[in-house]
Specification:
mainly alpha, 1% strand, 304 residues, globular
Length: 304
């Protein structure tokens, strides 16, 4: 049964796949950066975007307590500013709050919600409303979604500072310092302009990451039916570290990525009954259904 899936702590040797993942991602990053000046953009940019997305999913694994029980050590492997836009410590804090939310997708409760309460929606100007509607198609999420995510994040951080709340300031200082060194290093030693990295690698990498989160959750008056399952193929599953099986991840947030498929296979019928059949037959299914079609409205529904 699902309830017994995490009864005993993992042996530390069981974390070897995560240690191997860290080694592989950082090795591939080093090789890509070393060869980047000699690669054509149509090779360098897709390869870099995939590694940015993969690294973002590694950060997700790190903040959930892997590969060690010592979170500060895990965080060391997540502070590299390869995504540029969000400091690791803020992502960690926000995502763990998402897991604590009583009502997933509720914009008053869930920090990762893309929805708006009706009164807030009406207060938006028409251009912003148009962009948010477009953001509910997969094409829009990939094209303008990164800009929307980054803008909303920066606005929230600026408003926090204006409220004289400086709890994120130390992390920003570290992140800006690391990002400056990184951008200076690839420009000075490799001849790669900052705009090339931002526009050709970091932004598309976030775009690719948003494919996973596009329809992980939906509003529902039944709490258990708010989280999706995407039965993805091996490449998508490896890229997203099996978080496409999102019900299992939310039921067991501390379960390592490599155990999720087994638990899902052993409990598939139970999981799909629990989430009301909120299922996609791979990401090709998601693309075919919602690439140009809105999955729903950005206005959060009122449940009786």
């Amino acid at each position: 049964m699902m309830e017994s899936a995490e009864k005993k702590p993992l042996e530390r040797s069981a974390e070897l796949p995560t240690w191997a993942l860290i080694f592989v991602i950082y090795t591939l990053w080093s090789l890509l950066l070393y060869h980047l000046p000699g690669l054509p953009w149509w090779v360098a940019c897709p390869a870099g975007a995939v590694l940015v997305a993969w690294y973002g999913n590694l950060q997700h694994e790190l903040l959930h307590g892997h590969p060690t029980r010592f979170r500060p050590l895990n965080a060391v492997f997540g502070w590299a500013p390869l995504t540029l836009w969000m400091p690791y410590h803020i992502y960690s804090e926000s995502h763990l709050e998402h897991h604590k939310a009583d009502t997933l997708t509720d914009p008053t409760d869930d920090p990762e919600s893309y929805y708006f309460m009706s009164k807030d929606w009406q207060a938006l100007n028409p251009l912003v409303r148009f962009l948010m509607v477009a953001n509910n198609t997969l094409a829009g999420r990939m094209l303008v979604g990164p800009a929307i995510v980054i803008t909303r994040f920066f606005v929230s951080e600026i408003l926090m500072i204006l409220r004289m709340d400086f709890k994120h300031l130390h992390g920003w200082i570290i992140h800006i310092g690391l990002s400056t060194v990184f951008i200076y290093g690839i420009h000075h030693y490799l001849g790669i302009p900052w705009w090339y990295y931002v526009a050709g690698i970091a932004y598309p990498g976030l775009s690719l990451s948003l494919v996973r989160s596009f329809y992980e959750h939906r509003p529902s008056d039944i709490a258990e039916q708010r989280t999706a399952i995407v039965e993805a193929g091996p490449l998508w599953s490896l890229l997203f570290l099996n978080n496409n099986l999102h019900v299992v991840h939310h039921d067991f947030p501390s379960m390592p990525w490599f155990n999720i498929p087994r638990i899902y296979r052993e409990n598939r019928a139970e999981v799909l009954e629990k989430n009301g059949g909120f299922l996609f037959n791979g990401y090709s299914d998601v693309f075919m259904r919602y690439f140009l079609k809105s999955k729903d409205t950005p206005v959060y529904p009122v449940f009786k």
